Amino acid sequence: MISKTVASWLVLLGALLAWALPTAATGQESSPTAEGEFMTFYYPNGEKAREGRIVNGRCAGLWKGYHSNGKLAYEGVLRNYVREGAWKFYDREGRLQDEGAYIGGQREGNWVRYHANGEKRFEGRWEEDQRIGLHVEYHPNGERKATYQMVDNMRQGPSEVFGPGGLVIQSGAYFSNYRKGLWKTFQGGRLRSQGNFDLDQEQGPWTFFYPTGEVEAEGPFVDGDQSGDWTGYYEDGKLRFEGRFESGQAQGIWVAYWPNGLRQSRGPMLDGKRHGAWQEWDEFGRPDDEKSGEYENGIPK
Fold first, then answer.
1. Could you tell me how far CA 85 lies from the centroid of its own chain?
2. Partners of 151 in the beta sheet?
3. Which DSSP state fits 9?
4. Tell me: the pLDDT tens digits for 77-101?
5. Which of 176, 138, 184 is nearest to 156 (CA)?
6. DSSP for 177-208?
7. What span, in angstroms and rounded, lies between the C-alpha atoms of 102 and 97?
8. Hey, CA dihedral for 273, 277, 282, 285, is it positive or negative?
9. What does the alpha-carbon distance between residue 98 and residue 87 come to, in Å, rounded to a whole number?
10. Beta partners for 37?
11. Are 271 and 294 in contact (CB under 8 A)?
């Protein structure tokens, strides 16, 4: 979920040097200046690849790079081929994609990445080329998408995920880039579910809630899948169903109940489908022969 997005941003930012410094330039020209030579390099199609000043054989001062379509790719100061100060990077359409500062070739201070519409996509602090402290992700409309703490380029500590209108839809904590411990989900500002994560997978008992706060269902997860005995309830707390999951699939005997507490159906499940002899009753407890019968892979015989 959110951790894959972190990894994707790190890969993209780490790869900026690779795409931002065009290597396919086949032509060049130079113009003497009072402070060295101003060099321009070109792509085979004649478009500029990069340009800047060289002093004593080394890049110095402001350099700009371009995509092969002529759009600006980056701009910033180079000292002895090392990035210093404020830098900006642009996509192939010329839209600002990333901006931040370098010290000695390492990212330092606040960095921002942008959506194609110009709204912020990520924002966070760097120290010695490592992400650290509070980082924020944004939706394309400018609203917050997620907040989390970074330590040594890994998510660590409290995190929140936001939906439309800025409402929290998930909250919990990360340890070494993985969700761990108690996590909660919300719908419309109300608690929807809660349970534990370990290594980014649901583990152990989980509980789901109605908007009123009453328990809707409860049971265990194993390695991210529902596994074990699950029980469902009506909003008044009366039993609604009971059965077993194995690796996320309903298996074995399942029983459903009417709101008045009488049995509604009973029969075996195989890989999430009715399979075998099923019995049905109406809400008065009378057998329903039309609905009762044999099933094979969810299809009545």
1. 30
2. 154
3. H
4. 999 889 999 999 999 999 999 999 9
5. 176
6. TEE-EEEEEEETTEEEEEEEEETTEEEEEEEE
7. 16
8. negative
9. 8
10. 32, 54
11. no
